[in-house]
Structure formats: C-alpha cells, structure tokens
Design a protein that fits this description.
Chain B: Keywords: DNA replication, DNA-binding, Nucleus. The structure holds 2 protein chains of 2 kinds. By secondary structure, chain A is an alpha/beta fold. Chain A is about 45% helix and about 10% strand. Chain A has 20 helices and 8 strands. Chain A is flat, with a radius of gyration of 32 Å. Chain A folds into 3 domains: about 5-170, 3-Layer(aba) Sandwich (Rossmann fold); about 180-275, no CATH class; about 290-425, no CATH class. Chain B is of the alpha/beta class. Helix content of chain B is about 60%, strand content about 5%. Chain B is built from 33 helices and 12 strands. In chain B, helix 8 (about 245-255) links the parallel strand 5 and strand 6. In chain B, about 30% of the residues are buried. The chains are: A alpha/beta, B alpha/beta. Chains A and B meet through helix 3, helix 13, helix 14, helix 18 and helix 19 of A and helix 4, helix 6, helix 8, helix 9 and strand 7 of B.
Chain lengths: ~425, ~725
C-alpha cells in the first residue's frame, strides 16, 4: 500500500533509519497531530529495512512497569531468539529503571544479541504516567547504558519541554491540507452502492462526494479518521435516491441539493448514544425520581451552594420578600469565583430539611408533612450517590454533614420538571 | 427473581415498632373491653364482639387473611420474574453479538433507585454467568479509585474464579497468579515494591494477563476472537460516581484492547442519558455503540400489580386509601415492596379489627346461618342507616321498613342482595379497567396515567371524576384510524363471549356502527378519497360517542350499595400512622410521655424498677424544661433547673439501696468492672458529702443527655455567642 502526501517524511525516514549500527540514530522523534500517518509511514520504512524492530503502544501502559515489561518482552520476542512460550518476566526484579536496564543487558549478553534493533514507542505522549520521565529516560539511553544496539523511536503528538533543547532529530508530520485530504480520501471508494454500478462511475462519484464532504468539514477538522467516519456515516442517506433508482450516479448536483440538510446536520458527529436518545420521545422527563425526592435534591443543592447567613432572606415566611429581591451584583462579587464552579460545601441535614419545608410551602402553597418517607428518600438519594455524607472520624460528636453530588444542569432539569424557579434562590 | 432479596433491597428505612408492652393473658378477660384473646393454635387474632364472636369465625378471619396474603405474594413474585427476564434476554442478545470495531455497550437506565437496579444487575449477572462462555466482571467506584485498582479488579474478575470446565485455565492460574487474592488491601499509589513481593512475577493490573487467559481459552477450544463465543462482560455498577478522567482513560484503554479481548460493557446509569453522555469525552463516545435499556420497572410492576391483583380483588380499596397510596407513590416512595406492604397492612387491619370482614367470603348458606350478633352489627353500619332513612323518606313501603328493622331474615336477604350487586360492580369495574388499560391505553400513545390513577378515579365517590376520566381517555382516541377501530371492535367481541358487561357494549356497538358502510366510499379519485375520509371520521366519532355514553351510564361508584363498608378497605388513618410516622413528632411525643414506652419491667429487679418508675427518664425531664424555655438557653441555668427538678431524696435512697446490695450488684447493674469500681468507690466514700455526690451524679446525667438532645437535633451549640460557649440555642427549624 502506498502512502500518499508523505513523500518528504518517507525520504527523511529512509535517510535516518539505516540497517547498520554505525549509521543508525540513537533516537528519533516523529511528531505530528493524530492521524497524520506517522505510525504507518514508520512501519512501512521499518518493514522495508533488513532490521529487527518492536512496536510498543504506550497508551496501553498504565505504568512504567508495564512499559518496561512490554519493551523487554517484545525485544526478546522480535529478536527471534526466544519463543513465546519461553518468555519469562519477573516483576520483582524490575522495580525501577536501573533494574530494567540491567535485565535488558543481561538478556543481550546471554544471547549475544548485538544486532541493531529499533524500539518504536508509539503514542509515547499518551502513557498514563509521567511523560517527561519517559522521554528523559529513553532518549539518551544508548549513550549512557550498555544497551548499545537498541535505538528508540518516539511517535508523539507533542514534544515535552524537557527535551526541546536536545539534539535528537525530529521529523514533523504536519496536518493535511484540504487538497491533500481530498486526494487521500478520494483515492479509493470506502463505500459502495447497493445497486450494480460500473467501477469507474463509482470512483468518479466517490471523488465528488469526498470533495464535497471534505470542503464542508475541513474548516472544522482535518483529522482523517473523523472525516472517514463522517463519510461512511452520511453515505447511506446521501445515496439513498440512487439506490432507490430515482436518480442516476451522474446527477451529483441534484443529489447534493436534495441532501443538503442531511449533510450539515448534527447527525454526522453524534454518537450512537445521542441518536438513541433522539429516538426516545418520552425523554422530556429528566428523571424518574419521586416528586419529593426532586425537591430534596433542589433544597440540598441550595443548601450546598448558598451561605446559611442568607437563609433568612431567602426563605422568609414573609411571602413576597424573596420574590421582590433583585440580585445586586456588587463590584466585589464580580471578581469572585462563581460558586457553582466550586465544590459543593457541606451542610447540616436539618438545614436542608428546613429549606425543603420552606421552598415546598412557598412554591406549592401546601405544607409538607415531615414523616418517615422524607428520611427514606434522603437515604435513597444517598445510596444513589446523589447526596454524599461526610466521613466522620470524630466519634464523640458524631454530627454527619452532607453535600450534594450532582451538577447544576441536572438540578436545573429537575427544577424545570417541577416548574421550580431555582434561580430565585441562588445568591450569585 | 428472589422476591425476598428484592424486598430487602427496596427497604431503605427501618422503623422501630412502637409497642406498648402489655402482656396478653389467656385467662379469657377482655382486652380494652373489646375483644377476647383467641386461645387456639396461636392464632394472633382476637375474638371480637367483646369476646362473643364464635371461634370458628375468628379462625376463618385469620385464615382468609393468610390465604389472601399468600396469593398476593405469589402473584407479585411471578410478575417480578417475568419482567426481569424480558430485559435480561435482550441484553444477552447484545452480549452474544459478534464483536465490531466499536464496543457494544448496554446502558441501563434506572433513574430512581440504585437499589432496584442493583438487584437487577445481580439477576442479570446470574443470568449471564449461567452461560459458560460469558465471564462477568463487576466493578464499582468504591473499589476502583485508581486505574490500577480498576484494572486489577478486572484482571482478577476474569482470571480469578476457578472455572472447573477449563482445566488449562486452572493450571494457568496456578502457574501465574498464585497470590492474587492477597491483593485486596494495599495502597497502590506508592510502595509498589511491597505488593510485588506477594505477587508471583506479574503486576496484578496488567491487562496482558487477561489477554493471555483469553488466548489460552481460544487455543483450547481451537478458535479465535472472532469465531469464539467467549465474551468478557464488564458491568459498571455506578458510573456516576466514577472519577471522570479515570473513566475516560479506562474506556480508551479497553478500546485499544478490544481487538484482543472480547469485551462487552454494561453501564448502570442512575441519572439520565444526557448527564451521562456529558461525562464521557467525544472520542470515547465514538468508540462505543450504545444500546439503551430502561430497567426502571417499578411503574410497570405496579401497573401489573394493580391490574392483576387489586382490580380483580374481592375487596375494594377505599377512595381515601387508594388516594393515599397514589400520592405517596407519586410524591415520595417509588417502591414495589412498600406498595405491597401498604396493601397488606390495610388488609391486616381490616381483618384484625373488623368482625364483619369475613362476610364477603361466606357462601349463601353460611350467610343464612349468620348469628344475630352479626346482623345487629350490620344494622349499625352507616350505609344501612342511609338505606333505612331513604325508605323512611319515600314513606310508601312501611312493611318493608319494619321487616328490615325487626326481622333478621329480611336483613339477611338484603345482605345477600348487596353482595350480589357488589359482585356485579366488581365485574363491571374489571371490564372497564380492561377496556381502559388494555384496549384504549395501548392505542393512545402514552396515556400518562398509571393504572393506579385510573383505578383511583374509577372508584371515586364522586361520579363526576369517573365520568371525566372517561372523556379524557376517549379524547385521546380521537385521531384513531378505522383499521384500529376495527381491531378494538374485534377485541371487544372476543372478550364479550363470557362477559355480560362487555356483551352489552358489543351489542350496542354492533347495532349502531356499521363498518361495511364505508366500503361504498372507497375509490381512487380525489373526491372519493375525501369522502372516504369524512365518512370514516364520522364513523370514528360515532363509535367514540357510543362508547362514551355506554361507559358513562354504566360506571357507578360502589358507595350506593348498602353495606358497602364490608367490601372496602378503609382504615387509611391506621395505615398512615403506622407506615408513615412523623419522626420528629414521634420522638417528641415519646419524650413527653415516656411512660407509654417504659411501663413494663425490663430488669426483673424490684428496686431498679422502682427507680426507673419513680422518676421520669432524665432526658424527658430535660426535654420538658427545654419546651418551656425561650430561644436561647444558658447552660448553667439549664443545669440548675434540671437539678432542682429531680426528686433528689428518692433517687439517693434508691441508689443507696442498690449499693448496699453488694452480693449481686455487679451482674445486676453494670457489666463494666472497671467503671463499676470507680462508681462504687465514689458512692461509698464516706468522706464525700452527699451534696457533692448528688452534684456529680446530676452533672453526668445532664452532660450525657444534653449531648443526646443536641444529637436529636433539638439543640445546637451557639457558635457566635460572645460569652464563650456558655449557651445553647434551640434549633428552631420549622416542622423539621
């Protein structure tokens, strides 16, 4: 398979990566945004070289220990000296980087393995650990360790600042331009018609189709994977008139006019979760919780996010007091951080219950009788993790405090369900 | 489904039973002048009518209640299991699907109670693990706070339990993962060295182990990831509580392994889809194919219970009781167990306290032999009085009136008559209910009414409400097509064979609505089409109006039937008081009237009992003072008042008595030897004046109980007080 639009990088790689230990670089960095062909170009070059190489996917490594294990094992495997069944690995012995080097060198010595071996650290910026350490450790490894025949190639999106001054060569893979994208994607049709169409007709149609889609979306993304997704996603809708025999494949413009809206809709980037959600019409109710539970959540939200000193103005028995209150935004408060962005603060359950009584009476006009049901619901909400209890280590004064554990959006949607003006009660 | 488990999981609160300790003696004396205990076979029911109720009737009451309860329970059980199986099979189908590029993810929406969904999950897990090809791993946020602990749980789940069928895997485990179980408690953020020592050559969070395990299984069965039926099902119990970045990273990692591991995911979402989807980043969302399941079945179950159990029942739920259940269900507790409890409780009080409750379950012969005592009781019922007064008002049939009042036979006849008419009523109710829920409810998109609501409105005392319900439901039929109408017609016809009520309806519809009349209007031209439309509209209107007329004229409430009290469960107040007690009020009442709870003897020790009974519990005394004070309370004043309010001499005297009784003092009063020693020394020390002893005693009482009151939420310590921490503030939350 040929790789398009990457001739320059191919040439550079071929120049750097040689098959002899003398001329091979100590380390090499390939840098560029996602899906710009870094890994595939590298793989092709390495495949063509008469050298051994191992590819490690760093994003699958939770920690360095896993990474070391993977490097060790894949070097052993790819060297061809050890069979898969004979692999052994001792996590105990590999507790830090030094012991890893030691183990590796023991292997190299034991098997007299001194051929050039490229180790590709793919997606090296996505390891779930300290990225800088990875680069620092491996980039000069050949110079400082006995592992003279291992050459490390990093494939990364970004280069950490700690090695920007190092002399390691960097091959940059820039994002594709729109024209390049059209040429790459248009080269071979990814989709087909359900009906019999000549190969050439399909190709011509596909090229037009790719041009259309790429031009529409290239201002948003030039990630080739996303564009592929969009292309395959719109295809069934777009070519429907052709498959149903209404239009011919050469009537592209008519087709485009007809499908103008479908191509531009949210559908193309929505996940299957969203689409299923759209289907469901009765989703207008945000939650199946009982009414009082919703009120409890709202009042706990208020208790969490407003200070107790303003309670008496907010929940005053004087009915109209709080309604008339307009929100003065003092100059000082504008500098302060929005409360909602902060973590919820803890409150006494009694306070939340008092607020619940107040808002229930104010908004519904009827009194709420405190009974066991309310406590049951608090317990229930807490089991759903919508309310959190504080960890209390003080056994002498065992007063538990509570806080809410849901976002404003969720509480807002509950409030909307109940036609409850929650904004009136939040001091901000 | 194991109903017991289900019920337990639904229970979120435990209420201490308020029991007045009263010994029930079996010596045949009356209890509160009302009833005599029944001494046979441990039947807990009492002989009512001041003990005059025949024993066999008491036994009958008890057995009727028992059999009704058993019937309810079995019915509920079958309803629950049939509903769970439905979604479980759907989910299994998705799990069995071939693997694709994206990970198949089942999103279970529960929305109201995590306990319900956890039960569902456990059932699902059992359902899935029944198939040997599925390896179900359940993780939750509590155990998985870091990536490593999460992965460890997954790896352990996959390779952990021994699978007797796959010998190779067992060997594999022995070879590689000997000490995996020892990994439960370690801090995985640092000090990895320690862990590894206990672990045999592997990192427990290495997904490669899982991969090797799968390879082994495939190798053994001679297939690969695409041909094998092996699936690893990862169930995340509480996706809301997961750390967001962890969750996203985990899903990315799993996705990158999805070409090596046959992964299927099941998420349990407690809030809603929108909130959930905001938690995942877009690239992660695109890695998965989502399948939605609404596992919130409480509504469905209740609907089924209402139509299967409540409607066909011999006894009717009283309007108030049904309304109470409905309000409670809508407003606060969405819980099947609770729903059933309320109904059972209502049944129980009905059968326990009402000697007449057996009458609807007696045959005609037994009714004829009904003792006079019963008939006299019947005559006191309000509905009977109403009937008599209506007879008096009409004043044209004095003989009937007289015979009713004087002769038992006439009353018996009336009773039999009203039982019959009530049977007709229930039959009619059942038919109408069927018509609403099964026929009309299915055709109109979301009636928005639960079956319980329909039931409430249908049985309402106010006939306007039920008529309004008819119009409301039929209004939704308005846009129905003629084809659907024909289906309805056919359904009614089918049901009408052995149903008199529906037969009447069917007959009426048949005579008035002629579907064949439309045939003449079928045609292809525009005018003909229009005509057809107009005619079919007319037909639909006619159909609906006949239906509505019929229903409106035939739906009656049962309260016109004489003796309707016999057929309704109406003890709403008792149910309310016992199932939904007001917590704060109960605590306060208990504090004010401690004797209601503390009358009995619990120690069997004479002096101690006297001590307990001679003085009120200290906390009650304190609470009494608390009630009489103002908002702020100086703690020293409080103590002084408290001290002076206690009967000092009596308490001290009793204490001395106790202390003098050296021989059995230790085992009788205190189990703590050390504490006892100090107390004993203190009180027996002759050098300490009695006054000081008294002071110390009261102060310990005071401090201890003060803290208890604060804990109960009656007080709070005043924090902003200028005079140090010297005063308490009354916690004056209204109604809390």
């Amino acid at each position: 398979m040929s790789i398009r639009e990457r001739d320059q990088q191919l040439g550079l790689l071929r120049a750097f990566l040689t098959s002899s230990r003398e001329t091979a670089p100590n380390s090499l960095i390939l840098q560029g945004p996602t899906s710009t062909g870094k890994s595939i170009v590298l793989k092709q070059v390495l495949d063509q070289l008469p050298v051994k190489f191992s590819i490690i996917h760093c994003d699958e490594c939770v920690s360095y220990k896993i990474l070391w294990k993977k490097i060790l094992q894949s070097v052993q495997l790819d060297s061809g000296l050890i069979q898969k069944d004979e692999l052994s690995y001792d996590a105990l012995a590999t507790t830090n980087f030094q012991t890893f080097i030691k183990q590796m060198s023991v292997f190299l010595e034991d098997y007299h393995y001194d051929e050039l071996h490229y180790v590709v650290l793919d997606r090296s910026d996505q390891i779930m650990d300290d990225i800088e350490v990875l680069f620092k450790n491996f980039i000069k490894l050949q110079e400082v360790s006995p592992l003279k025949n291992l050459s490390f190639i990093f494939v990364t999106r970004t280069i950490p600042s700690c090695i920007t001054t190092s002399s390691t060569p960097v091959i940059i893979f820039p994002s594709y331009s729109g024209d390049e994208l059209i040429r790459i994607l248009g080269s071979a049709p990814l989709c087909r018609f359900n009906v019999e169409v000549e190969g050439k007709v399909l190709e011509r149609f596909w090229k037009q189709y790719v041009k259309l889609v790429v031009e529409m979306y290239s201002s948003y993304t030039n990630n080739i994977m996303v564009l592929k997704l969009i292309l395959t996603r719109i295809w069934p809708i777009f070519v429907q008139p052709i498959e149903e025999g209404e239009l011919k494949p050469n009537e592209f413009l008519t087709l485009y006019r007809r499908n103008y809206k479908a191509i531009g809709s949210d559908y193309v980037i929505s996940s299957s979760l969203d689409t299923e959600w759209d289907d469901e019409e009765n989703e207008h109710q945000s939650s199946n919780l009982p009414t009082i539970s919703k009120y409890i959540l709202i009042s706990t939200y208020i208790a969490s996010y407003s200070e107790s000193k303003s309670d008496w103005t907010m929940f005053s028995r004087l009915k109209d007091y709080h309604r008339k209150k307009t929100f003065r935004r003092s100059t000082r408060s504008s500098n302060r951080v929005n409360q909602r962005l902060l973590d919820a603060s803890y409150f006494d359950l009694e306070r939340a219950l008092a607020i619940l009584q107040a808002i229930y009476t104010i908004e519904t006009g009827s009194n709420l009788h405190t009974d066991i049901d309310i406590m049951t619901q608090v317990a229930n909400l807490s089991s759903m993790k919508l309310l959190l209890k504080s960890n209390n280590n003080d056994f002498i004064s065992a007063k538990t405090k509570w806080k809410i554990n849901c976002s404003f959006e969720y509480v807002k949607s509950l409030a909307d369900d109940l036609n409850f003006p929650i904004d009136h009660y939040l001091t901000e | 489904m194991n109903e017991e488990q289900y019920m337990q999981s639904q229970q979120t609160a435990y209420v201490l039973k308020k029991s007045k300790r009263q010994r029930v003696d079996t010596d045949g004396s009356l209890i509160s002048g009302e009833a005599k205990p029944y001494s046979l076979n441990g039947t807990p029911f009492l002989q009512l009518f001041k003990g005059d109720e025949p024993k066999e009737y008491t036994a009958l009451r008890y057995s009727t209640f028992q059999s009704r309860k058993t019937y309810q329970d079995t019915k509920l059980k079958s309803t629950l299991s049939s509903l769970t199986l439905l979604s479980s099979n759907d989910i299994e189908a998705i799990v069995a699907n071939p693997l694709g590029e994206t990970m198949d993810t089942c999103v279970l929406l529960s929305n109201s109670s995590i306990s319900t969904s956890l039960v569902f999950l456990s059932q699902l897990t059992t359902h899935l693990t029944a198939n040997n090809n599925y390896k179900v791993v359940t993780i939750n946020s509590k155990e998985s706070r870091t990536m490593r602990s999460t992965l460890k749980a997954i790896v352990k789940g996959i390779t952990g339990d021994a699978d007797s069928n796959v010998q190779a895997i067992e060997n594999f485990q022995k070879d590689q993962l000997i000490d995996l179980d020892d990994f439960d408690d370690f801090n995985d953020d640092e000090e990895d060295e320690d862990e590894i020592k206990t672990f045999d050559r592997r990192h427990p969070w290495d997904l490669d182990i899982a991969q090797e395990w799968c390879d082994l299984v495939w190798k053994k069965n001679g297939n690969n990831i695409h041909t094998s039926q092996l699936r690893i099902v990862l169930v995340i119990e509480d996706i809301e509580s997961f750390n967001l970045s962890l969750l996203n990273a985990l899903l990315r990692l799993l996705h990158s392994y999805s070409d090596r591991l046959p992964l299927k995911l099941i998420f349990n979402v407690g809030t809603n889809i929108k909130t959930f989807s905001q938690k995942l980043s877009h690239d992660v969302l695109h890695m998965m194919t989502f399948h939605r399941f609404n596992i919130e079945q409480t509504d469905q179950i209740i609907n089924r219970v209402v139509s299967d159990l409540v409607v066909p029942d011999t006894l009717l739920l009283d309007e108030e009781l049904a309304g109470f259940i409905l309000r409670r269900f809508k407003g606060s507790v969405k819980n099947v167990g609770d729903f059933m409890n309320t109904i059972t409780y209502a049944n129980m009080t009905h059968f326990f306290a009402n000697p007449l409750s057996i009458i609807p379950f007696l045959g005609e012969e037994q009714l004829m032999e009904l003792p006079t005592r019963y008939l006299n009781a019947l005559k006191t019922l309000p509905s009977f009085r109403k009937y008599i007064s209506s007879l008096v008002d009409s004043a044209n049939d004095n003989s009937k009136l007289k015979s009713l009042l004087q002769s038992d036979d006439a009353t018996r006849q009336l009773l039999i008559k009203s039982i019959k008419s009530f049977k007709i009523y229930t039959h009619c109710l059942k038919s109408v209910f069927w018509l609403f829920t099964e026929v009309i409810g299915k055709r109109t998109f979301r009636t928005g009414m639960t079956h319980l609501e329909i039931y409430c409105k249908l049985t309402s005392r106010d006939s306007l409400i039920s008529k309004q319900l008819v119009s409301e439901l039929l209004l939704k039929l308005d846009s129905i097509t003629v084809e659907d109408l024909k289906d309805i017609f056919a359904e009614i016809e089918q049901e009408s064979h052995d149903n008199d009520f529906l037969h009447g309806l069917f007959f009426k519809l048949k005579t008035h609505v002629d579907f064949n009349s439309l045939d003449g209007f079928r045609g292809s031209s525009y005018a003909e089409k229009m005509n057809f439309k107009i005619e079919s509209r007319k037909l639909v209107k006619l159909f609906i109006s006949i239906l509505s007329d019929f229903l409106k004229s035939n739906i009656e409430n049962p309260y016109h039937i004489t003796f309707h009290e016999l057929f309704t469960l109406s003890d709403v107040d008792v149910v309310k008081q016992n199932l939904v007690p007001s917590t704060k009020n109960d605590i306060m009442e208990a504090l004010i009237n401690p004797e209601a709870y503390l009358e009995g003897s619990c120690t069997g020790h004479e002096v101690l009992d006297r001590l307990n009974n001679s003085m009120e519990p200290v906390i009650s005394t304190m609470f009494t003072i608390y009630r009489e004070t103002t908002l702020d309370l100086n703690i020293y004043d409080y103590y002084a008042v408290f001290k002076s309010s206690l009967p000092k001499d009596e308490i001290m005297r009793d204490l001395e008595l106790i202390l003098d009784d050296e021989s059995n003092i230790l085992e009788s009063y205190l189990s703590d030897e050390l504490r006892f020693k100090y107390i004993y020394q203190f009180f027996n020390d002759k050098n300490i004046p009695t006054e000081l002893k008294w002071d110390k005693l009261t102060l310990t009482f005071f401090l201890q109980k003060c803290e208890e009151l604060v804990y109960c939420g009656f007080f709070k310590q005043k924090l902003h007080a200028k005079k140090k921490a010297g005063s308490l503030e009354k916690a004056v939350w209204k109604d809390v």
